[in-house]
Specification:
alpha/beta; 4 domains; 20 helices; 15 strands; about 45% helix; binds adenosine-5'-diphosphate; binds magnesium ion
Amino acid sequence: MRVDEELRLLIKSRNPVVFFESIDELHSLEQLTEITTDSGLGQFRWSLTDGLSKIPAEGTYYQTKDPNRMLEMVLGLVSYQGAKKFQPAIFILRDFHKYLDNALTLRLFKDVINKIRNTQTTLVILSAEYKIPKELESETAHLTGGYPTAKEIEGLIIDTIGESWQSKTEIKMSLTRDETTHVVAALQGLSIQQVRSVLNQCVISDNILNISDLKIIESCKKKIFDKEGLLEFYLTEDMNSIAGFDNLKRWLAERKDCFHPTTAAAALPAPKGVLLMGIQGCGKSLAIKAIARELGLPLYRLDLSRLYSKYIGESEENLRKALMTVQKLSPCCLWVDEIEKGFASSDGDIDGGVSQRILGTFLTWMQEHNTTSFIAATANNVYRLPPELLRKGRFDEIFFVDLPDARSREALFKIHFQKRNLKPDGFDIPLLAAATHDFSGAEIEQTVISALYRASGGKEPLNTGHILEQIRETKPLSILKSEEITSLRTWAKDRTRLA
Ligand SMILES: Nc1ncnc2c1ncn2[C@@H]1O[C@H](COP(=O)(O)OP(=O)(O)O)[C@@H](O)[C@H]1O
Ligand SMILES: [Mg+2]
């Protein structure tokens, strides 16, 4: 629901207190005024510097800058039963949470609540940060806002183009209808000021706003939100640059429309996330980048190793902040790489339970967050994965990434030839695929790279022989770790689906 609709509903449903956490006070005041005007409610505003006044301003009530005096005044107003009985109104109290740690203020505030309960009169605390005493939590509805709507963002885009036109540097916009929707979606979650500034950055260097500016928007957004630097913005990859993963590809194709509100599938619940586990170097990280592209979501990687701070207790706070940032960045794809490293199950005793608590925070968030973010996690070492993470319902699916089969190995050679501008026709690909049984994708890529060095050293064009030579010289990891891999496969057999 849109925030203004939600506000309307809360006021109508006689909620005594609404905490309106807003990054843009003026915008929110406008929204609130629209609501009071439409619904015939009175409006009062208070701030520490202006005191209490009725809107449209009839002057300020005497000596109401002081929070307690103001509350006494409000109490008097709402209790008045005389000829001009008090009409339902909303009281907009700016930054008022800051005064609620005073016992008298808190008491007066509760007195007002008791007076206005079950009336349409509402106290709206308007502030950029949400903080409320525990005992008021149950009476307070929390809303976040101040963000422009999609329509307003489109208006801001048009403004940017228009303004530049006045300043005589001609700025062009080259976006299809679909692309505009994408750009608008990427700009959501920013304040009006921030949208303006990001748009300016998009056009400043090339005087054109087009789809390639999505990258700039995403990295600006990340800079704005992620002050701790726990999230990293990544560019996505094309699904065609990945060999194998047939089941994952099919799974995604069936679900990708859920994230795009124009399609019929948008009515279906969007998938929450997947876990890719399996053998190192077989393309898990690469697959995540392609998943994000398929779903049409920007990709952010959560760096778990940076999460752990020296100071016990702070790491949980850091994770909480990062997850809140994800909320602001969504819809997005959250990539948790090598998840076992962050949530190691065995370290509980060593670190005083920090990793256990971190895991708890993460699981709770997975369960309860109501954003359209998709979690894509990878794991190499399943034995270190806490069982809670694998329980049904956490991830929509757990995929096992095995060594590539012969067909995938052929595809791997083709992909990596093409990546280096080599024509696949010039090589005996079936022979190469047959020779690389037990090789991971990363190892296959490496044979091509090393062979290229060898060939250029000998001043020869690369041929099949160069690569076969490298293959013979490589001892694949899967042979060194064959026992580990066998047991991984056994583990995965009943618990996962082949990727
Ligand atoms: N299935 C694959 N298709 C294409 N390239 C692959 C594949 N598997 C591995 N690679 C190559 O190996 C590199 C390393 O793989 P990566 O995704 O980091 O593996 P993992 O995360 O499973 O350890 C990739 O960047 C890619 O170049
Ligand atoms: Mg990886």
